[in-house]
Write a structure and sequence with these properties.
With 261 residues, the chain is α/β, with parallel strands linked by helices. The chain has 10 helices and 9 strands. The strands form 2 sheets. Strands 1-2-3-4-6-9 form a 6-stranded mixed β-sheet, sandwiched between helices. Helix 2 runs parallel beside helix 3. Pfam families: ECH_1.
Length: 261
Amino acid sequence: MTDTPDELVRLDVDAGVATLTLDSPHNRNALSAQLRRELIAHLDTAIADPGVRVLVLTHTGPVFCAGMDLKESRGAGAGQQGVHEVPRILTTLWDSPKPVVARIAGPARAGGVGLVAACDVAVAAERATFAFSEVRIGVIPAVISVVVLPRLSARAAHELFLTGETFDARRAAEIGLVNTAVADDGLDAEVERYTGMLRLGAPGALAAAKEMLRRDRPATMAADFAEMNVLSATHFASEEGQEGIRAFAEKRTPSWVPGDD
């Protein structure tokens, strides 16, 4: 455990799972300057820790994240708030070689929705709601659009970015913003189900699969197959690949699964 009483983000590591908790309920876990700095620091620590296999992003209080701290956004230069830190947070979540699961037990707004979109897997309680509320206060969801737009259909993006309408967790799942919406009392079990599955994957293979999912596809199918043949052969011949094949043949658990030597 690496937290102090004054921290707004807590980091806990247990059995290969690093849980990053937004702990600023007094302002609805808004992305204040302090919270942004601490979130970046804890993300870097968790990703660098060889004992961490999966990250979970969660929160205390009734709200997941209300977006930027509007009290810090007033006055001259307000448009520069988090100009480097927010892209860094979203990029770190998106590019993390370790899978990241978002646990959403309450409302997410604006930048908070960006955090959700940047994670690999997102599980929301049915009580959670979402909104791209920026246009209703005279701004636009510019920065978060980089990670949000790849998740949504064009129709849904136009509708929700332009109206600012609040939508529920089931709609969020239908349009691809979250993976699943579950009963409020089933949230933790569903998050644990995902983290349990992700911990079974080989670390190098998980990182490579994430990179493959993010890559730009070549112009032709032939070029795509050529690249993928090389990538496939590389991983079959890798130490992880050979260990996985041996473990399958020997009907045992691969060495990378937590709890096994």
